């Protein structure tokens, strides 16, 4: 796993990263990217959870796009305040992900708003393989706790 430091969210003194609060989100800002290469171990975990899934031996299941998106979200947008709610998710799949592909997931804030006294944050996660070919484009809407 490689990429930006989690959230690129440290304070000026270099101390522990500050909690990423609603007020700190900037619409249009990229929060970095995370690059991962799905391997036999990761796909093996999937096969144990979903033994009925059928996909090529050199490939990863289509659901691996969601795994990579969520891992990038967890890594790049941290530390998060406790109590956030994953309200909605949309995913468009592109090129199939193969074992050994180097998939880079870029995370960007695309919207934030207050509705009915709740803080909504919308982020986009775009995954491309080592050839620059899109593998997925996901949008997450979260109710941010603080």
Describe the model.
This protein is an alpha+beta fold and 146 residues long. It has one domain: Thiol Ester Dehydrase, Chain A (Roll), CATH 3.10.129. It is built from two helices and six strands; from the N terminus they run ββααββββ. A six-stranded antiparallel beta sheet has the order 1-2-4-5-6-3, covered by helices on one side. A hairpin with a 2-residue loop joins strand 4 and strand 5. The longest helix has 13 residues. The chain starts with a strand and ends with a strand. The relative contact order is 0.24.
User: What is the topology, as strand order, of the major beta sheet?
Assistant: 1-2-4-5-6-3
In terms of structural class, how would the helical and strand content be classed? alpha+beta
Say what the CATH topology is: Thiol Ester Dehydrase, Chain A
N-to-C span: 29 Å
- Major beta-sheet overview: 6 strands, antiparallel
Which CATH architecture would you pick? Answer: Roll
Q: CATH top level?
A: Alpha Beta
Shape: elongated
Tally of domains: 1
The CATH superfamily turns out to be Hotdog Thioesterase
**Number of continuous helical runs:** 2
Mean pLDDT: 92
Q: How many DSSP E strands?
A: 6
Describe what is shown at a glance.
The chain has helices at 40-49, 64-76; strands at 2-3, 30-36, 85-93, 103-115, 118-128, 134-144. With 146 residues, it is α+β, with helices and mostly antiparallel strands. The protein starts with a strand and ends with a strand.
């Amino acid at each position: 796993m490689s990429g930006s430091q989690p959230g690129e969210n440290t304070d000026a003194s270099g101390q522990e990263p500050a909690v990423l609060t609603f007020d700190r989100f900037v619409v249009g800002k990229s929060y970095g990217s995370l690059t991962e290469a799905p391997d036999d171990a990761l796909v093996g975990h999937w096969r144990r959870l979903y033994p009925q899934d059928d996909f090529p031996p050199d490939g990863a299941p289509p659901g691996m796009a969601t795994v990579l998106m969520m891992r990038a979200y967890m890594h790049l947008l941290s530390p998060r305040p406790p109590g956030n709610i994953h309200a909605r998710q949309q995913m468009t799949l592109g090129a199939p992900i193969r074992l050994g592909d180097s998939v880079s997931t870029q995370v960007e804030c695309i919207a934030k708003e207050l509705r009915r006294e709740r803080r909504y944050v919308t982020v986009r996660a775009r995954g491309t393989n080592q050839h620059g070919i899109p593998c997925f484009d996901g949008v997450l809407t979260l109710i941010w706790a603080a």
